[in-house]
Amino acid sequence: MSSAQVRKISQKCETEVPNYGLKVRLNHTYPEDRSQDFIPSIKQIWAMLPLILRYIWYYIVHRIRGKSIVMDYVKTLRAQQIYGVPIGGIGCGTIGRGFRGEFCRFQLRPGLYEYSTVDANQFIVTVKDGHHETIFHSLLSTFPMKSLKSWESSIDGSECFYTGLYPRSWTEFDLSRYGIMLTCRQVSPIIPHNYKDSSLPCSVFVWDIKNICDEDRTVTIAFTFKNGIGNKSKDRSSTCSSKAFSLGESEGVVLYHTIDKMQCSYVLSAKANPDIDISKCLYFDPNSSGIEPWIQLKNNGCFDKITDKNYGQVFGEMACGIAAKGLVHPNNCLSTEMALVWDMPTVQFPNKQKKYSRYYTKYFGNENAGLRITRYAFENYREWEDGIYRWQGAILEDGELPDWYKSALFNESYFVSDGGTIWVTLDDEDAKKLPKSDPRIEFGKFALLEGHEYKMYNTYDVHFYASFAFVPNWPLLQSVLQYDMRDAIFTEIPDKVKMLYDGSMVERKVPNTVPHDIGDPGEEPFILLNSYPIHDVSHWRDLNSKFVLQVFRDAFTAGLNERSVQYLNDMYDACYAVMHKSEEFDIDGDGLIENTGSPDQTFDTWVMTGSSAYCGGLWLAALFAMTKISDALQKTKDNEKFQKLLDKGKASFERKLWNGRCYNFDCSDVECRSIMADQLCGQWYLRSSGFAYEVFPQDRVKTSLKTIYENNVQSFCNGRMGAVNGFIDGAVDKFTIQSEEVWTGVTYSLAASMLQEGMWSEGFNTAGGMYKSMTDRFGLAFQTPEALYATKCYRAVGYMRALSIWSMQLAINELKKTKN
């Protein structure tokens, strides 16, 4: 076989519809529609009543003053059971796609979402027979329309199939009654270790048209798009214009507009091809019936020829389009490539304290980059697909892995781009202040939201879990985030803010503490840290340990070399400072920190009293990490100090918390009996960093995991919903709301812990039951919530913590190495 033949077969494998992913028909409905209307018990409400009353007042005041509300518990989002793979790269804004073909959920304003489906954003097909008569004309979407009344969908959703495997999707349209089979392959540039291309605000749509009848067919694929983000008030306040272009091998239309006073352009394009005729529409009214462009396409298979390449200033909404028409002979195929680019190079947050350039501008500039990105996308998308296939192929072809997991690993990764992510360059002034070894000089600043509804960037107690997606795939994004967090540790913001939990006035950012987050996208992130308004996070018991453990994991999984030792050296002062601060939390001097009897960690309604399995375990793991870090940096005195603390703390941990079956939740009188799903969080991190039982004895670890599996997993919802956070006295722990929740990210990390111990079936059963329920029953694909309840409800859609699924893959890789 020739090399050309091998390459052709390889390309086919890379682009054909995979066996895994979200697979639904275009008329699919999910069997169970859940909501966020969870009603706590009277006991739970009573415990939180002061917080609830303060929150109501906070909400009213912020609404009246027009200020950002970081967590809106009044107007919670109802998950729409519509989503497929979103489009766009990392940190450049994203546009959601529904599996029925719609464009929805815009996140072009950094960190702020518009849950809108825009009727004017469509693909349209026109099929003509051998006599040039139109035999089929339809939208290529089955999502119901509210405007553009002349536009119709005539496709049979039951005969059309969607496959979504992030960052690509395939939609197969069975138009065989008209002699045509049509497939759209959507490709976004999400490629591990390829930072330039992964930052691009674009997607390519490859249309494969197959004529399966015995006469010619002329097929047109049209693509239309309007200005804005589906927010009527903001879209109407924009001045818009458009122009036609031809550049190299691409032709199309540029739609210029503003989004919240930030300049943006949409570029719709088709790749020029001798077999394809491309026509352009520079303007139609998206609020009209849409009859003119619709009839042009239906009658002629193209838009009317334009007489002027520019369409003047329109204040308000406007739409445009392109159409690609080609002749397909019997039993032949024709492909046409289209692209959408959104160029919004300079962004700022509502406080307008600073302007930022998105990272892609480093390569494509701040002026009129859209056309250059379009050309680049057409020239390189096949290389993107090659990179995506190399990333996914070995996992998809691994016969030992369950099918659901192959879908879950990549589809949960949607949050890497569609997590409100922002990736910007450093300006020259900021770059000059940094040493040459600082990765931010080259890779800028990076942040992602805690969740679509929880608008806080780089929420660190949660990123502790989510970071597992970045370390193997985009480690330098994890690195720049860590350098920002290191600097934030030493930052002080003395402004007083009121905490909703107890009404206390506290310093916004206390020095020598890890911040909860780096800010609210509705305010001024990167500058105004700690937008979380509920607790004084300077007293949280998990944040400081989590910083040390991430530094440790990042360096030791990479292997100690010149770069990782430099990283440890750069982070050491911050690690030492936060560990020294955390020593204050060891009230009784036994080497183990104590909780305060208030929610002082990531489970921020679940009170821990005295020493606890969760925070105590993280503390011990962090002490061990410090012994290894100080040893690597040859800091002998520090090493001795941390080793002594560790030895003392380990003895206290075992004495206070081990009960023979698992570790006690805490040292309270009653809640101590709760079996906590996340009690081995510290051990999970140590195993993920390449260590074994140096802190937690092997028999304790395995016994605890078996206890958790029997109770929190198998005894909850017949083992079909993951691991409930708390289980006490043979039932779900209803001490607080969070103790009776299943946290998606915790379930994945727990499953990883099981895999680390060789508990293969238990690990996959734990995570698989939850994932299959979310995607097959509840319709929560590409909007994974923070929490699920046993019945009817979920909480916080589109949440960061579920990226912890990548710790499962790390555990799988290590298991396979051990076997080999």
UniProtKB/TrEMBL annotation:
<protein>
    <recommendedName>
        <fullName>Non-lysosomal glucosylceramidase</fullName>
        <ecNumber>3.2.1.45</ecNumber>
    </recommendedName>
</protein>
<feature type="domain" description="Glycosyl-hydrolase family 116 N-terminal">
    <location>
        <begin position="84"/>
        <end position="384"/>
    </location>
</feature>
<dbReference type="InterPro" id="IPR012341">
    <property type="entry name" value="6hp_glycosidase-like_sf"/>
</dbReference>
<dbReference type="InterPro" id="IPR052566">
    <property type="entry name" value="Non-lysos_glucosylceramidase"/>
</dbReference>
<dbReference type="Pfam" id="PF12215">
    <property type="entry name" value="Glyco_hydr_116N"/>
</dbReference>
<keyword id="KW-0472">Membrane</keyword>
<dbReference type="InterPro" id="IPR014551">
    <property type="entry name" value="B_Glucosidase_GBA2-typ"/>
</dbReference>
<dbReference type="GO" id="GO:0006680">
    <property type="term" value="P:glucosylceramide catabolic process"/>
</dbReference>
<keyword id="KW-0326">Glycosidase</keyword>
<comment type="similarity">
    <text>Belongs to the non-lysosomal glucosylceramidase family.</text>
</comment>
<feature type="domain" description="Glycosyl-hydrolase family 116 catalytic region">
    <location>
        <begin position="444"/>
        <end position="808"/>
    </location>
</feature>
<keyword id="KW-0378">Hydrolase</keyword>
<dbReference type="InterPro" id="IPR006775">
    <property type="entry name" value="GH116_catalytic"/>
</dbReference>
<dbReference type="Pfam" id="PF04685">
    <property type="entry name" value="DUF608"/>
</dbReference>
<dbReference type="GO" id="GO:0016020">
    <property type="term" value="C:membrane"/>
</dbReference>
<dbReference type="GO" id="GO:0008422">
    <property type="term" value="F:beta-glucosidase activity"/>
</dbReference>
<comment type="function">
    <text>Non-lysosomal glucosylceramidase that catalyzes the hydrolysis of glucosylceramide (GlcCer) to free glucose and ceramide.</text>
</comment>
<dbReference type="InterPro" id="IPR008928">
    <property type="entry name" value="6-hairpin_glycosidase_sf"/>
</dbReference>
<keyword id="KW-0443">Lipid metabolism</keyword>
<dbReference type="GO" id="GO:0004348">
    <property type="term" value="F:glucosylceramidase activity"/>
</dbReference>
<dbReference type="GO" id="GO:0005975">
    <property type="term" value="P:carbohydrate metabolic process"/>
</dbReference>
<dbReference type="InterPro" id="IPR024462">
    <property type="entry name" value="GH116_N"/>
</dbReference>
